[in-house]
Amino acid sequence: MTDAIIPCEQNFMLTQEDFDRFARLSGDHNPIHVDPEFSARTSFGRTVSHGMLLFSVVRSLLAQTWPGSTLNRQSLMFPSPAYAGDTLALVVEQQKAEGDRLVLKTTITRPDGETCLTGECELTVPGKEAS
Questions:
Q1: What does the alpha-carbon distance between residue 91 and residue 21 come to, in Å, rounded to a whole number?
Q2: 63-115 pLDDT tens trace
Q3: Phi, psi (5° rounding) for residue 56?
Q4: pLDDT: is 11 or 6 the higher one?
């Protein structure tokens, strides 16, 4: 197992093309995600990310940081929207370690400090022993 530095952080930016591709992949073509003209007339003012697209970025960082790990459970909330073109900050923090299991807090924030995703996950990490 790779010894991960916790908290681990990653900045990333999603584009409208990312939203459109995720819509094609997932089948979720809600206009709030893929129709800029429609979205401009909503309280959001522009298209917003699919929540599961945000989670995909979280899952990718988990897989890169803890290769071979198994995601046992994940809870997610999406308190504020994430917009195309914003630089978002993903932070993963350790909450608990027991044997080969890690409980991690996951957060994605916008540049204005608003939280777009918050959650908790449990990983089984091969070869990991509690610290």
A1: 25
A2: 999 999 999 999 999 999 999 999 999 999 999 999 999 999 999 999 999 99
A3: -60, -35
A4: 11
| Length of the chain in terms of residues written | 131
pTM listed for this prediction: 0.90
How many Cα atoms sit within 13 Å of 18 on the Cβ side? 19
Domain containing 115: what range? 8-15+49-124
DSSP 6: S
Contact status, residue 53 vs residue 14, Cβ threshold 8 Å: yes
Please report, for the domain that includes residue 101, its CATH number: 3.10.129.10
Who contacts 34 (Cβ-Cβ below 8 Å, separation ≥6)? 19, 20, 23, 47
Task: State the Cα–Cα distance between residues 80 and 69, nearest whole angstrom.
Answer: 29
